[in-house]
Amino acid sequence: MKQDSPQRLTEEKPAAGRSVPVLVPMPAERPYSYAVPGDMCVEPGSIVRVPLGPRQVAGIVWDGECEAIDPRKLRPISHVFDCPPIDADMRRFIDWIAAYTLSPPGMVARMILRAPEAFDPEPWVEGLQATGAGPDRLTAARTRVLELAANGMAWTRSGLSHAAGVSSTVIDGLKAQGVFETVMIPPRPVVAAPDPAYASAELTGDQEEAARMLRDSVAADRFAVTLLDGVTGSGKTEVYFEAVAAALEEGRQVLILLPEIALTQAFLERFQDRFGTKPAEWHSDVAPRKRERVWRQVAEGGVRVVAGARSALFLPFKELGLIVVDEEHDPAYKQEDRVFYNARDMAVVRGHIGGFPVVLASATPSVESRVNASQGRYARAVLHARFAEAALPSIRAVDMRRSPPARGGFLSPMLLSHMRETLERSEQSLLFLNRRGYAPLTLCRVCGHRFQCPSCSSWLVEHRFRGQLQCHHCGHAEKRPEACPECGTLDHLVACGPGVERIAEEVVGQFPDARTIVLSSDILGGVKRLRLELEAIANGEADIVIGTQLVAKGHNFPNMTLVGVVDADLGLANGDPRAAERTFQLLSQVTGRAGRTGKKSLGLLQTFQPDHPVMRAIVSGDAEAFYEREIDERQKAGLPPFGRLAGIIVSAATRAEAEGHARGLRRAAPPANDIHILGPAEAPLALIAGRHRFRLLVQGERAADMQAYLRRLLATGPKIRGSVRVQVDVDPQSFL
DNA sequence: AGCACGCCGACT
DNA sequence: GTCGGCGTGCTC
């Protein structure tokens, strides 16, 4: 059984003349060679089915010559799918990403082969068409059917019976008399064609200027990146819809990338208001059957606009002419398993390869995009003001040293009194705290024992509602004990610090009659329930909302006039070089939830560091100053210039193992590079779940140098067990 | 990535 | 005596 099985020898013909390279969805460093049967036609990009070990997989015929391998190993391609080939741009894109992320090209190819049923054409369905012949006699039911079918349009049997409101036997009867004949109907489009002229946008001032810039960029029909930078409510979406319209007018397809969570019904409806139909959706929630149809119709050019999460970047567009990356700063664009990539950067690369424009939109752009804009590599369009009726909230910092909360509480008297006033005006308050559960740490008052995760040593978070202690890094959960496991003392465990559950407890104590709702990702009932709750809040069915990050995104709450950030400092001191930037972005988004209808509104930041640059920037609304300072600070700290942060992650099971790797890497590293060990807390979930709980982040001065260095390192460096991945935080422009 | 093979612990 | 854990190794 070690050699070719007898079965294989009998079923597959021995290799004929030609063989081609085929990229298989597997972590192989290069394409495999397959024989092309004499009567088969393939070209680079053809999607084929090939035998791979014991199974059949889909692969892509690749470019170039295939390398000479043992002819006895060579097996023939089993089937060529009747499917548009993956075009040369897309193939270059795959090669580029593989090289850039140091991932096997096969794994990148796997990302575009994720709709296996779509490789065969959608079947035509059987339909009925009126022949013009009359029935033997007319009944009321028959008349209704004939009226519908009179224009010669083909109907499906069930479609026609439903539309006419008759039983399908009526249709069968007419068909038997020759009134209808069977015809084949092509597959129904997954969405209607968007009409760029459906509703013209009403744009003013800044918006008009920005829209003109974007339209010009599309008309120029070459690679260019524009950063569309505008505060929440300034009409960014309407502005980039103009770029979408321009691309549609040019007969090009458009991809709009959104963080998964922002891909809401509300967004789809805004699109529909402008273009008369919804875009095709592409994200993890789309049913498999629908996904296949979208994939196929994108490949054939039937779908003109896709709104999708990051994986939509790997759809095989036929004539892509524009990518919009909305909320471009959002960390959700980073994929941190298998192939590590940042969809925002890959979108820029895709645009470069395809020679078309890319729009990056955000109210709080990432620092690297801001740097790219200020250095002239990206154009920048700025929307300064909100729409007339949507006034910006005024924002104040509450100095928690001067205005401390009552003992045992976490809400300052100032925040509580504003909540009371808001309640009296029948308006809504939002309390934001980016921490799930009841308390982030539990300790024993007698012996000082702290509850730690057995597998990743971070503190266990108490979830009082579920009676559990949970690890937020690896998902470990245990029942909350009554007694201290160390000293056995009963009832002396004490919760330290607040989570949203604890804040809710305090709020209910203070405002027992208010309708209070807690929103966090551990809500029972999943995304569906969450959407319902958000709707309910928007409809005014709650007075006080307490929430984590989830409430910061997307949704509009027209009656929300007070936003209180319980711990605005949270996240500022966690060692992440992007901590300040992330906090700034999050606080901007959260405070932006208030005042969307022009009512007087207020944001209060509870902080111990009212003079911190992040707080000052949020309070003054001077984002510009924040960015300038941030760029300056990081340069002074000797951190890599923005947009040129490269790194690799070497994962290890233990700190000792990680330190061993770090020593080996430091010996090989040029002096400009720095190697950090990231603990379990900073490792992505996918890594912690396995045995690789530590990561080494290797940062370098210039991305291109780093790339060369990493290559050398992986080829000649110390033997590294476990997985080696590239951290993709690099400005792709420096590679182009 | 899959999927086989292969070698050591608790059960019908 | 087997079922089943996941450690290694291979796939043109």
The amount of helix comes to 25-40%
The largest β sheet comes out as:
7 strands, parallel
Distance between the termini: 48 Å
Give the strand order, joined by hyphens, for the main sheet.
Answer: 11-12-10-13-16-9-17
Number of helices: 21
Strand content: 15-25%
The domain count comes to: 6
Structural class: alpha/beta
Average pLDDT over all residues: 84
CATH fold category name of the largest domain: Rossmann fold
The Rg value, from CA coordinates, equals: 30 Å
Approximate shape: globular
CATH architecture of the largest domain: 3-Layer(aba) Sandwich
Number of strands: 32
CATH superfamily placement of the largest domain: P-loop containing nucleotide triphosphate hydrolases
Query: pLDDT under 50 segments (min length 5)?
Result: 1-15, 641-646, 669-673, 680-693, 700-704, 716-736
Assigned CATH class of the largest domain:
Alpha Beta
